[in-house]
Design goal:
With 291 residues, the protein is an alpha+beta fold. It is built from eight helices and eleven strands. It folds into two domains: 136 residues, N-terminal domain of MutM-like DNA repair proteins (Alpha-Beta Barrel); 124 residues, Helicase, Ruva Protein, domain 3 (Orthogonal Bundle), CATH 1.10.8.
């Protein structure tokens, strides 16, 4: 799943290549992925792109039209979605229902992009709105962890009294925006913290480590994503992982074996020596430590 660093990489890439270009047409190939109807998709035609920004894991393309503010194209790539960029957009016709493409956007210089989604479970969503805040998922986002206002004390306030496992807190977009399964694993490994630790149980020293790990992990990942084309961002993400997606491999910090806990539709990875005092987490939903 693309998370904040990869989405920021897409923002930087699109911002550099689309500024001042007009949207010639936007072709919907998967109507189920379109979550709005007013303004219609046709409102994007002839709109000039004025900026590209990010809200958590949502990407926001803003436009100007008819001398004023134009519609925003906002999208969330979900678990299996991606953006495919073309310096020269293909001229082949899209056949709805027979393609992984959900949306194709053609730009005035001949370039453009597709929003695609692999697999049968379709969760990718895009919206045409007057303001990004009109998207419900954007409106309920918590603070961005790389915003200057996200301080150590802000994080401490979010955690205080919250009897929820810290892994879940980091992934909850209404609490902290942009962190998903992969980077929560990485942050907790860097903080030397069990994913099952209760947020309310963290000491001041724990919060210090968690805050530092959050900022450093995400800052490094964003730096790694900056300047890369969309086709290279997924591989860059995988290369940067210390524990996530590395079950059975050696922890680069202590040399222990990276372990997994599997759930219905995902898994988490961690290092027992670095994070759980050598204890192996039970591989079941009850999420108890094996004695």
């Amino acid at each position: 799943m693309p998370e904040m660093p990869e989405v920021q990489g897409l923002v930087d890439f699109l911002g550099e290549r689309t500024a001042g270009l007009r949207i010639v047409r936007a072709m919907v190939a998967n109507i189920a992925a379109l979550k709005t109807y007013d303004p219609p998709v046709e409102a994007l035609k002839d709109a000039e792109i004025t900026g590209v920004s990010r809200h958590g894991k949502f990407l926001d393309i803003s436009t100007a039209k008819d001398g004023g503010a134009g519609p925003h194209l906002v999208f969330h790539l979900a678990k299996a979605g991606w953006l495919r960029w073309y310096d020269q957009l293909p001229t082949t016709l899209i056949k709805p229902g027979r393609t992984p493409i959900a949306l194709r956007v053609a730009l005035s210089d001949g370039s453009g992009f597709d929003l695609t989604e692999a697999g049968t479970k379709k969760s990718l969503a895009f919206y045409v709105v007057r303001a990004a805040s009109d998207v419900p998922g954007v409106a309920r986002l918590g603070p961005d962890p790389l915003a200057p206002s996200f301080t150590r004390d802000v994080l401490a306030g979010m955690l205080a009294g919250r009897r929820t496992q810290i892994k879940g807190v980091l992934r909850d977009q209404s609490i902290v925006a942009g962190i998903g399964n992969a980077y929560s694993d990485e942050i907790l490994h860097a903080a030397k913290m069990s994913p099952y630790a209760l947020a309310s149980s963290l000491t001041d020293e724990d919060v210090d480590r968690l805050y530092a790990a959050t900022i450093s992990t995400l800052t490094d990942a964003v730096s790694e994503a900056t300047g890369k084309p969309p086709a290279d961002l997924k591989d860059a993400k995988r290369r940067g992982m210390q524990v996530h997606g590395r079950r059975g491999e050696t922890c680069p910090v202590c040399g222990d074996t990276v372990r997994s806990v599997f759930f219905a539709d995902n898994s988490l990875e961690y290092c027992p020596t670095c994070q759980t005092g050598g204890k192996v987490l039970a591989d079941r939903r009850l999420s108890r430590l094996l004695k």
